[in-house]
């Protein structure tokens, strides 16, 4: 590149208006787009959950048809997994990875733009079927087979909109793969001089490993939906027993994607928590190297535990035992992480600003979810737990009070860097306490009804479960409404209303991102920073 | 009386507080919070395993949370202004890798033992084939003791009436809707104690004998689950899964279960009701069913249209309404009211054929309904809801259908 070109490139005016966002190749703007998109999907998916909880407030069918209920559970799951959690973490990666490793931008900025702009269209296609359904077009109009879309419910018995669903999953997959390639190329090629791999912040490490997981498993998901498509329209019988196919094959293929996917949704959270706890404990992270190795072992193990989602399909004894042992083994590296965080806090000098509050809530509630996960690994007992609300409680503890809480922690932690103003304390405190109490009211009693025998994805239930379901629904409405407080916090920051943030916004914060001013200028690191 | 939301909420809170103290002493009592010990040897072992693991994870959790709490109190800036700087300790890291590993082995050993026991479904006295349909269960008795040719099978549907399920509004209390009576002008029926759990024809099993279940499905995946018998097994089209249970003598009674794998619209409405009886009673019951099955089908013609319509309406409500709507308006299945299919003479033969042999998502009813019932239902569908074709189909027509 000639000097003149480089000069032009670095000092042009920031584009304004719609063009700034539509044609953006700037990692910060694209990160912002991802984060707003993720939050919008979080609210949309939450709205669907409110429909579920309204119907389940009382036994009997009062508000919706069981068919519509199934569409709600399905699209709620899809919107949250593919719309809220995954893009949320990609947004954080976009914003923070270049800042953390001293890179001027992501390595492939145009692909970055594309991988974001695919997403709104993917979800427009998926959610359009819900609108059609809600306004009575077609019966049933939206996907109604659960987010796991097991064949043959989704193939021979799937509604016409299954094809919209397949198309939209393909688009989400393409977006994720491109995002992952971008992260890997950026981390391997654009680190500032002196930023060796083992000096990288853990958030970068966990994202690097996550990116490899994404590249490994998103094509498997694409394969699964393509096989569905050909089964539905081109006369193949991959999953149709009557044609010599195998419905259980679908589950193997799906969970070979699905289990690594679970870690895709939690590894970046580990990175966030590993950044926040040392900051507010004013003490270096305990066991940095073991954190890296634990993350890598979790990622590797995630490829050999998939069948623990399907213990009841009737696998041979040897297979069942193998998957049980491997699943139990995952708790060792996960435990190491939790112990490391506790040891980081130990004999530190802690203060409890908002990011720290969310981080500690994450450690405790994620551990609850991890421990119920260990219970689920014990196969003979899983025969009772499987497909009950106990499972629903488990994965909401790790996904909501785990992944989502970590994103709230990240947002409160880095909002000063993104916006230049500190997040509103009063609203933030209200948001935290309100969410903390309601999330437990919402998900803890699910353990009880699940153990007592309430199957999941039920539009109506036996009277025995009525009392707890009432409280679960109240918790649900409360948690849902609490998130509007976060919307207010974000809007205030976006409007630059609040206390001005210094470059090092938190007293104990370490890392390159705190060396640049707040808000971070449109272009950072024109010349690479010095890494000590 | 229909209880209000607040009333129920109060009861819920109280029962939550009491549940910690009261221990269910009677095996028929079902806990609202915890797994059930169940009635079989295996279900008891599973329950014990659950209890052990629950204690282990509770203790681990409390230890970790305790440490966090202590740290939050003692190592806050106001108490400990100068942070320590340690960030490594090899011994500690080895300990917290090895100790969990040992705990895991301690859990894996009993888990493996129970799993091996569960896997052995040999030497069963009774074999029942369980087939999941959308949205009912079919039980077929294959072998019992020395009898390898029983030939008894039947469908088991939800017994809870629709009026109990479809509450028009919330029952009152929290929202300003008034009572249900205000809203719909009449009291809607109170829900039975076993709401959504009762079936019209239960699965009948003998006590004290090993029962082997062969589990499969006719359409999509279902899951056969009787919690008191110790676990679930998926019912998968094209596969035959096995599981087994011995309900000890003295534990006769009715046990309820539900479908545990999403199977479509009425997933929540296909319960499993198992009636466990003494071996003597079971033998009598089975003999009666065999006799019924062996009898020639009743082909008495209907005297007039009304007689056929009466039986047709009943049969339609039990077998068809779930997909085709209470008023033939359609749903998962096609609509009949005013449709060409149900009114055009040309489709009459096809109509009978689809009922007997099924088509695409429509299951075959030839084995489930008698010729008389099929004739009645076709007659009903062609005459109800303004279809008034006047077609009267006789049982013999169905019997003769190729």
Automatic annotation (TrEMBL), chain A:
Q: Which residues cross the membrane?
A: 33-52, 72-95, 116-137, 164-190, 202-229, 262-281, 288-309, 321-346, 358-378, 390-415, 427-450, 470-495
Cited Pfam families: COX1
Where does the Cytochrome oxidase subunit I profile domain lie?
A: 21-532
Q: Where in the cell is it found?
A: Cell membrane; Membrane
Q: Does the keyword Heme apply?
A: yes
Q: How does it sit in the membrane?
A: Multi-pass membrane protein
Question: Pathway, per UniProt?
Answer: Energy metabolism; oxidative phosphorylation
Family annotation (InterPro entries): Cyt_c_oxase-like_su1_dom, Cyt_c_oxase-like_su1_sf, Cyt_C_Oxase_1, Cyt_c_Oxase_su1_BS, Cyt_c_oxase_su1_dom, Cyt_c_oxidase_su1_bac
Q: Which SUPFAM superfamilies match?
A: Cytochrome c oxidase subunit I-like
Domain of life the protein comes from: Bacteria
Q: What EC number(s) does the entry state?
A: 7.1.1.9
The record's function comment reads:
Cytochrome c oxidase is the component of the respiratory chain that catalyzes the reduction of oxygen to water. Subunits 1-3 form the functional core of the enzyme complex. CO I is the catalytic subunit of the enzyme. Electrons originating in cytochrome c are transferred via the copper A center of subunit 2 and heme A of subunit 1 to the bimetallic center formed by heme A3 and copper B.
Which family is this sequence assigned to? Answer: Belongs to the heme-copper respiratory oxidase family.
Protein name per the record? Cytochrome c oxidase subunit 1
Species source reads Alloalcanivorax venustensis ISO4
TrEMBL record, chain B:
Domain Cytochrome oxidase subunit II copper A binding positions: 123-288
Pfam families (UniProt xref): COX2, COX2_TM, Cytochrome_CBB3
Provide the protein's localization: Cell membrane; Membrane
Please provide the record's keywords in A-Z order.
Copper, Electron transport, Heme, Iron, Membrane, Metal-binding, Respiratory chain, Signal, Translocase, Transmembrane, Transmembrane helix, Transport
The record's section on PROSITE patterns has: COX2, COX2_CUA, COX2_TM, CYTC
In which broad location class does this protein mainly occur, judging by the first location in its UniProt entry? membrane
Which InterPro entries does UniProt cross-reference here?
CcO_II, CcO_II-like_C, Copper_CuA, Cupredoxin, Cyt_c-like_dom, Cyt_c-like_dom_sf, Cyt_c_oxidase_su2, Cyt_c_oxidase_su2_TM_dom
Q: Which cofactor does it need?
A: Cu cation
Q: Where is the Cytochrome c domain?
A: 307-385
Q: Which family does it belong to?
A: Belongs to the cytochrome c oxidase subunit 2 family.
Q: Which reaction does it catalyse?
A: 4 Fe(II)-[cytochrome c] + O2 + 8 H(+)(in) = 4 Fe(III)-[cytochrome c] + 2 H2O + 4 H(+)(out)
Q: Cytochrome oxidase subunit II transmembrane region profile domain location, by residue?
A: 27-122
Parts of the chain that traverse the membrane: 53-73, 94-116
Q: How does it sit in the membrane?
A: Multi-pass membrane protein
* Record protein name field: Cytochrome c oxidase subunit 2
